[in-house]
Amino acid sequence: MAAIQVPGLLSFTIAILVFFVGATLNHLFPILTRWSIPEAVTGGMLAAAVTLLAYTLFDIEISFALQARDLLLLYFFTGIGLNARLTDLAAGGRPFLILLVITVAFLIIQNLTSIGTSAALGLPRGIDILLGSISLIGGHGTTIAWAPIVSSRFGVTNAMEVGIASATLGLVIASLIGGPIAQRLIARYHLSGAANEELTIGVSHKSAREHDDEVSAVSLLRTLFVTNIAILTGYALEEVIEETGFKLPLFVVCLLVAIVMTNVVPLAAPRLPWPTRSRALSLISDLSLNVFLSMSLMSMQLWALSGLGLSLILVLGAQTCVTVIYILFVVFPAMGRNYDAAVISAGFGGIALGATPTAIANMTAVTKIHGASSMAFIILPLVSAFFIDLINAAVLGYLVQ
Fold first, then answer.
1. Residue 55: strand, helix, or coil
2. Global pTM?
3. Which H or E run contains 355?
4. Helices of type H across 299-401
5. Could you say which DSSP state residue 124 is in?
6. pLDDT (tens digit, 9 = 90+) per residue, 91-139?
């Protein structure tokens, strides 16, 4: 078996190429755009399939350096924070609480689904936990943290492999179901976003054709400077937080710093140009998200799914069915049956089976076609990237006792 480690700059460049391949395929097959499949997902899945073929047919294992991906995650979430005005946060108060409650309820349902289907299939104790919220809502990071504990507690020798495989397949499914669900809801209930509201992330397909040259080098540099200040502050604040014994993901710290900055600096210095809701910030956020997602998907080692058998597919098939039913009959009605609810439904598919960036990519693909939804981009990351991780940790602590 030959191993190829693609270095950082080349990995970043390939990710850009992967995005353009996905954009080309979405253009050639309009159904992909119509069903709000992100370009990065289309290209990333194709790239992952290519690496799988290289592994299967030629015994070549290709892996990518992902340092750039981690930095792009910080730019992306900082951009969300810089767009978060207090008026949006206030308007999102009640919807935020509703989304938090139904997400916690789903976390419990997800674990019960895993336990039930695993028992029906005769899977060993411990495997059922790995196929629940550890790997799905939790994603790869939570899996890596908890797999050794599950292995020690239940004697599951391949806990890490099972968890990573579940998280990987969940990410694939999450990337594919969010857009079609939202598209179905929007068509059925004749919904649309506000026509005069700028997108939080990205530029709409129509606007991209009409305003190709509206972003200047100065506006981009100004926005990058503010974003970098927020990220650097986030780095410093994370160290202070760690000294207290409390652990927060760095991207969450940067998100919170950016929210504070965007609601304090413009009041303290009203003459200072600020990037909130600017086209430059939308483009930087969109670029960061697309390349991040391209790198995440193209680096998936799909061959890890082989050998885990039909049981993994059956359990995750059941999880997918439960997720879709829950979105249609709980999430969408609870969030108000309006356009914001449809966009949040797309995002919920991402956080339920994948990760927060997947959720945002799903919502971005929808809003580029149908219009902005500021509330969705404020409340969903706060629920999925912060609160739900804390609650998931508490639930997992109970399950592994």
1. helix
2. 0.79
3. none
4. 309-326, 332-334, 339-353, 356-370, 374-382, 388-399
5. P
6. 668 898 999 999 999 999 999 999 999 999 998 889 999 999 999 998 8
